[in-house]
Amino acid sequence: MPDLVVNGALIMCSFGTSPGSLSVVRPTSQGVSQPLATIMDSAPNVNIAPFGMCMTPSNPQVASATAAAQGVLTPQPCMPMTTAPWTPGSATVMVENNPALTSASTCLCMWGGSITITQAGQATVSAGS
């Protein structure tokens, strides 16, 4: 069973050079140390941080720099361009009427990268919650 994903989880794009992090901008539930992510936590530069440098020629900035370098692949700063929610979400856990994000979920960048969860993070629940 996949793990549920929380604020601060580590994520990676298949065309990025370094890991990024997932930010969940809603408050935590009472007694939980980190808010659970949902499939809707997919906004570039809000929820999904950049991944260092982008290495795909389908990114216009990379294509332009590569052309200027006479065909030598020239990575450019990553600017995530997600256009749809994460998929699939949890079939059993809902957060604010959206499926919770799981470690098996992926999100696509419009330049062709596949964003995956490399470390789901961990939320602790205080006693009595």
Defining key terms:
129 residues; mainly beta; four-stranded antiparallel beta sheet; two-stranded antiparallel ribbon; 1 helix; 18% strand; elongated
Walk me through this protein's architecture.
The chain has 129 residues and is mainly β. The protein has one domain. It has one helix and eight strands, in the order βββαβββββ. The strands form three sheets. A four-stranded antiparallel beta sheet has the order 2-1-8-7, with no helix packed on it. Strand 1 and strand 2 form a beta hairpin. The protein is elongated.
Summarize this entry quickly.
Helices cover 7% and strands 18% of the residues. With 129 residues, it is mainly beta.
Helix count equals: 1
Low-confidence blocks of residues:
none
Main sheet overview: 4 strands, antiparallel
Radius of gyration, taken over Cα atoms and rounded to an integer in Å? 16 Å
* Widest β-sheet, arrangement of strands: 2-1-8-7
Helix share bin: under 10%
Write down the overall mean pLDDT: 91
Order of helices and strands: EEEHEEEEE
N-end to C-end Cα span? 23 Å
Summing up helix and strand content along with how strands pair, one would put the structural category as mainly beta
Q: What count of domains describes the coordinates?
A: 1
Overall, the morphology is elongated
Strand content: 15-25%
Compute the number of strand runs. 8
